[in-house]
Amino acid sequence: MKLFVSGREGQLARSLLALSAADVDVVAIGRPELDITDRASIERALDAHKPDIVVNAAAYTAVDRAESERDQAFAINRDGAENVALAAAEAGLPVIHVSTDYVFSGSADGWRHEQDPTGPQNVYGASKLAGEQAVAAANPAHAILRTAWVYSPYGGNFLKTMLRLAGDRERVGVVADQFGTPTYAPDIAEAILVAARAIVADPQNSDLQGVFHLTAQGEANWADFAREIFRQSAARGGPSAAVDAITTADYPTPARRPANSRLDTTRFATSFGHKLPDWRDGVARCLAALGD
Ligand SMILES: NC(=O)C1=CN([C@@H]2O[C@H](COP(=O)(O)OP(=O)(O)OC[C@H]3O[C@@H](n4cnc5c(N)ncnc54)[C@H](OP(=O)(O)O)[C@@H]3O)[C@@H](O)[C@H]2O)C=CC1
Ligand SMILES: Cc1cn([C@H]2C[C@H](O)[C@@H](COP(=O)(O)OP(=O)(O)O[C@H]3O[C@@H](C)C(=O)[C@@H](O)[C@H]3O)O2)c(=O)[nH]c1=O
Hints:
- Pathway: Carbohydrate biosynthesis; dTDP-L-rhamnose biosynthesis.
- It catalyses: dTDP-beta-L-rhamnose + NADP(+) = dTDP-4-dehydro-beta-L-rhamnose + NADPH + H(+).
- Its cofactor is Mg(2+).
- The structure is a single chain.
- The protein is α/β, with parallel strands linked by helices.
- The protein has one domain (about 1-155, about 185-220, about 260-280): 3-Layer(aba) Sandwich (Rossmann fold), CATH 3.40.50.
- It has 10 helices and 12 strands.
- A 6-stranded parallel β-sheet has the order 2-1-3-4-5-10, sandwiched between helices. A two-stranded parallel ribbon has the order 6-9.
- It is globular and about 55 Å long.
- NADPH dihydro-nicotinamide-adenine-dinucleotide phosphate (NDP) binds next to helix 1, helix 4 and strand 4.
C-alpha cells in the first residue's frame, strides 16, 4: 500500500513517515513543493506518486495566534483541506483527514460522540470544523479522524514545553479545569495505517466513512498531564517540577478552550478493530524516545 501524506515536518507527518516499511510506502510532501492552499501542487504530487490513499496531515495549529490570523487559519484548515479532498477525489482516491476535539464547545459533561452538536470556542476550532464540512462535501470517500492534545518527540507540543519549563523553574501553574485525552502522535499514525488498509481494501464500505473520534484511552486535565510527565521524567532522571493546579481564569490566553473535550472512541474501535493505549503509556514511550 502506498500512502500519500500532505505535510511533512509536522508531528503527525513525521510519525507516519517513521512507519514506512516493506508493506507500506509512506510519501510525505510539504511546503514549499506542496502547499495545500495551491490545489495544482497537490494534483502534481498525486500524479507523480500514484498512491492508494491520501492523508491530510497539514494544518494551521497555532491556537492562540489563529485569533488574530483568521484568514490564514481558514485558508489552510478549510480551503486547504478541501483542496486535498478534491484532488484525491479527482484521482479516484479516498482521503483521511485529521481534525480536533476543539470543534466542540466543551460545555457538556461526559464523553462526546461523533454526531453530538459542535460549537467551536475559538478560530482554530471553527476553521477545523469548516474543514471537516468541506472535506465531506468534496470527496464522498472520506474518513475524518478527530484527535486531541497531540504530543510526540517532534516539533512543539505541551509535553516538550513542560520539560523545558522544568529546566528553569521549580513550580509550574497548569490549568486543572479543562478535560480531554493526551494522545501520542505515533499511536495516531499507527491507527491511520490500520484505517487506511481497511479503506483501501473496501473503499465503498460506508461503515469506514464519515467522522471518527480517535484519541488514547482515559482522561486528564492539563495539570494531570503535566504531573504525569514530571512523575515519569523524574523516574528516568530527567527534568521535573511541582505542578500548581490553577483555573482557566488564572491563565488568560487569546483563544478560549473547551472545558470538556473527552472523545468517545467506540466508533473507530468497532469499525476498524483498533484502540489506542492509555494516555500514560504514550507519555512513557515519548519520554523514552526523547531520551534515546
Ligand atoms: N497538535 C495538536 O495538539 C493537535 C492536532 N490536531 C490535528 O492533527 C493534525 C496534525 O497536527 P500536528 O502534526 O500536530 O501539526 P503540526 O503543527 O505539528 O504540523 C502541521 C504541519 O502542517 C504544515 N502546513 C501548514 N500549512 C501548510 C500548507 N499550506 N501546505 C502544506 N503544509 C502545511 C506545517 O508546515 P510547515 O512546517 O511548513 O509550517 C506543519 O509541518 C492537524 O490536522 C491538526 O489540526 C488535532 C488535535 C490536536
Ligand atoms: C504552557 C502552559 C499552558 N497552560 C494551559 C493553557 C491551555 O489551557 C493548556 C494547553 O496549552 P497549549 O497551548 O499547549 O495547548 P493547545 O495549543 O490549546 O493544544 C491544542 O492544540 C490544538 C492544535 C488542538 O487541536 C487541541 O487538541 C489541543 O492539543 O494548558 C498552563 O496552564 N500552563 C502552562 O505553563
